[in-house]
Amino acid sequence: MITKIARLTGCLLIVISASSCVHLKEYQKNRINDSEMALSNRKVEKNELNFQSYREAASGANAGKTGGGCGCN
Amino acid sequence: MRKVYLSVLGFALVCRLNVHAQTIQDTLSRTKAPSLYTPVEQPSGSAYNPQALHVDEVNLVSSYYLQNGNHSAVTGGIGTEHVTDISNGIDLKLLWGDPKVLTNSITLGLGIDHHTSASSAYVNLSGASKQGGSRVYPSIDWTKENIKKGSSFGLGAYYSGEYNYKSLGADLHFSQKTTDRMGEFGAKIQAYFDHVTLIYPSEFIPTSTTTEDVIVTNASTSGGHGDRPKIPTSPRNTFTASLSYSQIINSRMQIMFLVDGVTQNGYLSLPFHRVYFNTGKDTIERLPSTRFKLPVGFRLNYFVGDNIIVRTYYRYYLDSWGIRSNTAYAEVPVKITPFLSVSPFYRYYNQSAAKYFAPYGVHDQTDEYYTSNYEYARFTSNFFGVGLRVAPPKGVFGWQNLHDLELRYGHYSQNTNLVSDVVSLSLSFK
Fold first, then answer.
1. What is the DSSP string of B91-141?
2. How far apart are CA B342 and CA B335, in angstroms?
3. Closest to A32 (Cβ–Cβ): which among B251, B313, B323?
4. Do A35 and B391 touch (CB under 8 A)?
5. Any CB–CB contact under 8 A between A44 and chain B?
6. From the CA of B113, how many Å to the nearest CA of chain A?
7. pLDDT per position as a tens digit, B47-99
8. Which residue among B82, B206, B260, B428 is buried most deeply as judged by most CB within 10 Å?
9. A49 or B210, which is more confident
10. Closest Cα to residue A45, out of B391, B254, B426?
């Protein structure tokens, strides 16, 4: 399975490399800097992510918490 | 027509007056060019200093969560999973330093949840245990950011306390932008040191803890008979190493890779989770004392046209208990105006069962490990809803300090019959 992940990651890297990253000046980043474009969870999602990590076995790789708290109920 | 000529002439004159201020001739002659702009003299004792310690942002997040299901782990994989939870959290970000060179920030957080859980009542076989409980979780984070170098470094600490579970955590994080400022590498290590209170179902209370004080076994709160009963605890440790890399692809697209390595050891079961064997006899959940998790994630955000954004996320997860899972998420914020957006979203999730899971009455007494907690079952889930975000430049409802309001509703369902609804509100003050 790890091989599968490595292949998938490799393919993504190739696709992204092929699309050739363009160097942008700061003034050209107005869309990239839009708050909706942030590569992070929204603040309002905080408790959603908590309950998902308690009801599902998988967690992590989303810049959220990966431990702490019980969620026993 | 005369007005137009006069306007153009006046505008040209104003422009020429200002342009003259930048010519070489004026600079060399050191004569002050005539200009309409007169700089405002700052009083020497001005109170405002952007480098001084100040409150940068205050965030409030509140949620209401309602859940129903019929596979509670407390009753061995059958029975009600009705839960309600009200969460309230506040984050206070303090900032100081030169915003063009080096800044320091301290973020103080405090969260308080209160829940009711119908299954908690059945920790006591008669259903007499209390159903409510609270959790308090303060946190602190210090981050030093070097704006010129594009790097940051920080430390954090957390605590989470509820009646049957205590958690103490710390982290160390670092980030570095690439020289062209188009990419950023991030690294974080976290450690959680938890203690699980060994509250057993009433029929399994060890005689060593059955003092007169321990008359109620409850997963959420003490029985309310004076002092808290002295129930032993068992440690659970979690160590996480997280790596991320983000890259701007072009003026409309950016991506991010995330990977976590998580190792856990200690008491990873919960003492009040029952398991019923195929003989009809019951016992408490038993799981291995170690677990390794490896989630790998990928984000891609794309700005389509002028007012539509596509936010996507995918995660593949595997762990040493035999669980494999896929998570796919898509959200499409549509900017109705530059300051108002509506964001429908959808999340799909599936997982295979853990090696140690079996439903009610299926486990054999010869099994080494056993659980009937449906968190470890094979299932798929769907989560969809919509968010609303308002961030006008003059403040929400005209209140300048309230610069951002987000409201979000989601409906979640598993094919194990578990369904839930969550509504959240976030307010940001500057």
1. EEEEEEEETTTEEEEEEEEEEEEEEEEGGGGGGSTTS-S--EEEEEEEEEE
2. 7
3. B251
4. yes
5. yes
6. 10
7. 556 688 899 999 999 999 999 999 999 999 999 999 999 999 999 999 998 88
8. B260
9. A49
10. B426
Of the candidates B323, B325, B261, B326, which has an alpha carbon nearest to the alpha carbon of residue B292?
A: B261
Q: How many residues are recorded in chain B? A: 430
**B420 CB near a chain A CB, below 8 Å?**
yes
Where are chain B's structural domains? 1-38, 57-429
Q: Is B355 on the interface with A (CB under 8 A)?
A: no
Write the DSSP symbol of residue B388: E
- B409 CB contacts (<8 Å, ≥6 apart)? B385, B386, B387, B421, B422, B423, B424
Q: H or E stretch including B271? A: none
Residue carrying structure tokens 């200093």: B49
In CATH, what class is B57-429?
mainly beta
Chain A residues with CB under 8 Å of B380 CB are none
Dump the DSSP string for B140-181: EEEEEEETTTTEEEEEEEEEEEETTEEEEEEEEEEEEE-TTS
| The model's pTM | 0.82
Tokens linked to B25: 């001739």
B144-160 per-position pLDDT tens digit: 999 999 999 999 999 99
Query: In angstroms, what separates the C-alpha of A34 from chain B's closest C-alpha?
Result: 9
Among B60, B63, B65, B245, the strongest candidate for a mutation testing the A interface, having the largest count of A CBs within 10 A, is B63
Q: How far is B32 from chain A (nearest CA, A)?
A: 32
Which residue in A has a C-alpha nearest to residue B311's C-alpha? Answer: A37
Query: Could you tell me the sign of the dihedral formed by the alpha carbons of A15, A17, A23, A27, in that order?
Result: positive
